[in-house]
Design brief:
This protein is of the alpha/beta class and 358 residues long. Helices cover 36% and strands 16% of the residues. The chain has two domains: 241 residues, 3-Layer(aba) Sandwich (Aspartate Aminotransferase, domain 2); 102 residues, Aspartate Aminotransferase, domain 1. A seven-stranded mixed β-sheet has the order 2-10-9-8-5-3-4. The structure holds pyridoxal-5'-phosphate. The site of pyridoxal-5'-phosphate has 12 residues, from helix 3.
């Protein structure tokens, strides 16, 4: 039996995608071998890779002056690739600090430049996005980096910042959750294992004119232009993860695209937050306007019951509800592949658990 998986990442994948991958596993489209065993230079694999890119371009409406790269190293490697590629002779970059992931990006960028933290919610324990009119941006900054959705703290931006310098965003846990105007950004990146596909892949969407001026000493493998000029096949890419992500893109198209996903995702999140707000036993500390649609942390009135909660949830097929080790409590991640029925089952369990323990 398949369980409901609320893991923050690697996360749930659509069941029909897994079934299709299983059917194609031993003999891909009558070729007599699996996708994993194909040369990345073969016509069959190149067709898979190109189709995946086209489907992502269609889903996100990516303008033609943007490159789409399928790289390795996770979102974390982007923390260093971004300054190496986007400083372009400048000494400073602007960063917004809204949680652990922005903090990691900031720490890495400091190895390459002066980091100007334009706003931070650290003193408020990362429970809100600092109001835009309080931001101290630097006109000389090479770019402005922010994290639209903080996966651990469950904090989501309710606006896209206005910026005179290229906007760079870590969309790891919220890409493809709703429509997005890509043209507002210089660069968008997302580790695949949250809302795209399997681990081992990071998708980078970057405006062409930002490429080609890396800092001295940048390794070949960390230069976006090398990957762009070689269609992400300068070296062997993560072929199977790319293929499986492509199946997810096709699944998203079949669901009705990102407008439809946004509708479902909003409904799923509303159901869970409503349970948290109406059942006195539960709480969520994030400012209502910044509550994440994808990652919902919540606390129990009696933290001593956390282990029991997790054990009973597990027994009912509701898996991976423990919060991140750095913050504790509970967290339910509601990515695209988590069906609405999973949220209904979780809410029913939470209500029952509160009645028995409240
Ligand atoms: C998970 C996550 C990362 C790190 O991703 P890796 O692929 O493990 O490097 C970075 N940023 C955000 C917002 C994340 O959710």
């Amino acid at each position: 039996m398949r369980v409901y998986n609320f893991c923050a990442g690697p996360a749930a994948l659509p069941e029909s995608v897994l079934v299709q991958a299983q059917q194609e596993m031993l003999d891909y489209h009558g070729k007599g071998l699996s996708v994993m065993e194909m040369s990345h230079r073969s016509a069959d694999y190149v067709a898979i890779a190109e189709q995946a890119e086209q489907d992502l371009r269609d889903l996100m409406n990516i303008p033609s002056n943007y490159k789409v790269l399928f790289l390795q190293g996770g979102a974390s490697q982007q923390f260093s690739m971004i300054p190496m590629n986007l400083l372009r002779g400048k000494a400073t970059a602007d960063y917004v600090n809204t949680g652990m992931w922005s903090d990691k990006a900031i720490k890495e960028a400091k190895k390459f430049c002066n980091v100007n933290v334009v706003a931070s919610d650290e003193a408020n324990h990362f429970r809100a996005v600092p109001a835009f009119d309080t931001w101290q941006t630097n006109a000389e900054a090479a770019y402005l980096h922010y994290t639209p959705n903080e996966t651990i703290h469950g904090v989501q931006f309710d606006f896209i910042p206005d910026s005179n310098v290229p906007l760079v965003a870590d969309y790891s846990s919220i890409i493809l959750a709703e429509p997005l105007d890509v043209s507002k950004f210089g660069l968008i990146y997302a580790g695949a294992q949250k809302n795209i596909g399997p681990a081992g892949l990071v998708v980078v969407i970057v405006r062409e004119d930002l490429l080609g001026d890396v800092i001295k000493g940048t390794p070949t493998m960390l230069d976006y232009k090398i990957h762009a000029d070689n269609a992400s096949m300068y070296n062997t890419p993560s072929t199977y993860a790319w293929y499986l992500s492509g199946l997810v893109f096709q699944w998203l198209k079949a669901q009705g695209g990102l407008e439809k996903m946004a509708e479902i995702n909003k409904r799923k999140a509303a159901k869970l937050y409503s349970a948290i707000d109406t059942i006195e036993f539960y709480g969520n500390p994030v400012a209502v306007a910044n509550r994440s649609m994808m990652n919902v942390p919540f606390t129990l009135a009696n933290p001593a019951l956390e282990k029991t909660f997790l054990k009973e949830a597990d027994a009912q097929g509701l898996l991976n509800l423990a919060g991140h080790r750095s913050v504790g409590g509970m967290r339910a991640s509601l990515y695209n592949a988590v069906p609405e029925a999973a949220v209904d089952a979780l809410v029913a369990f939470m209500s029952d658990f509160a009645k028995r323990n409240g």
